[in-house]
């Protein structure tokens, strides 16, 4: 099982000063994530969403993080492609250049471009999946699934079943690569503090300003033991990667940093020991 963090640069009461601060806070969190043993970071791409996310030019953010780190993988989760917003060749060029500069740490998509990416034949491909139809499409194309799962473990279990069934029945004619990526990543909203009650308050309040269509307080909010118990559910479901959402709208930076440390010192080692 892999462990990652996803960044949206959420801000409930935005001002230019707070926008600048939250981006630098996200960088600080990403650098600490590498130190604490996380495998990967993801950056979303959203535009003109005043409170939901201020992560627009995510390739710039990821490049800055890549320059500050050396081992953690760098992921676009995901690049905005529909309606001709970006030309696929330009997306591939930027991804390949970041793959070169980061030493082969990028997750996104391929392309016949120069310079060639370090990863052969291309960086792993992923698709954001919030509906069953999207999961089926990702499976048919041989693309990894980034599952939101805000509704909790039961929702993730149902989506894993849809994804697995689609993989088992695909004919192969729609695969976009000779090396399919059947990697299933599930979102895990989390705040973990020594003060478990405060962690629950901060975590549930942090999600409330954001309209995700579903709301569930039974995530990894509380103590490290609470987080381990929730990840155990995801592990039993067959999740390949736990994608931690820590940076949420009203959560202070010091709580984000402590959460990263708690995962690095207690949660991740628990599951690494099981694998060993």
UniProtKB/TrEMBL annotation:
Keywords: Monooxygenase, Oxidoreductase. Transmembrane segments: none annotated. Residues 13-110, 112-211 form the Luciferase-like domain. It holds the Pfam family Bac_luciferase. The keyword Ubl conjugation does not apply. It comes from the Bacteria. The keyword Membrane does not apply. This is LLM class flavin-dependent oxidoreductase.
């Amino acid at each position: 099982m892999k462990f990652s963090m996803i960044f949206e640069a959420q801000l409930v009461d935005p001002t230019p000063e707070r926008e600048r601060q939250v981006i630098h806070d996200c960088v600080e969190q990403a650098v600490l994530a590498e130190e604490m043993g996380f495998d990967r970071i993801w950056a979303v791409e959203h535009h003109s969403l005043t409170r939901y996310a201020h992560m627009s030019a995510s390739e710039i953010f990821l490049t800055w993080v890549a320059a500050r780190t050396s081992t953690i993988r760098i992921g676009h989760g995901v690049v905005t492609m529909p309606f001709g917003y970006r030309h696929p060749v330009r997306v591939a060029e930027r991804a390949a250049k970041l793959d070169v500069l980061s030493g082969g740490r990028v997750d996104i998509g391929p392309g016949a471009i120069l310079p060639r990416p370090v990863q052969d034949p291309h960086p792993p491909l992923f698709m954001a999946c919030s509906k069953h139809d999207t999961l089926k499409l990702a499976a048919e194309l041989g693309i990894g699934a980034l599952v939101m799962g805000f509704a909790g473990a039961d929702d993730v279990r149902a989506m894993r079943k849809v994804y697995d069934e689609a993989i088992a029945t695909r004919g192969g004619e729609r695969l976009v690569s000779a090396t399919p990526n059947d990697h299933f990543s599930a979102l895990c909203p989390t705040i973990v503090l020594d003060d478990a009650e405060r962690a629950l308050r901060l975590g549930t309040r942090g999600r409330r300003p954001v309209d995700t269509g579903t709301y569930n307080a039974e995530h990894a909010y509380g103590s490290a033991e609470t987080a381990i118990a929730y990840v155990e559910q995801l592990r039993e479901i067959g999740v390949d990667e736990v994608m931690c959402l820590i940076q949420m709208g009203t959560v202070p930076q010091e709580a984000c940093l402590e959460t990263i440390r708690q995962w690095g010192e207690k949660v991740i080692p628990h599951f690494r020991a099981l694998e060993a």
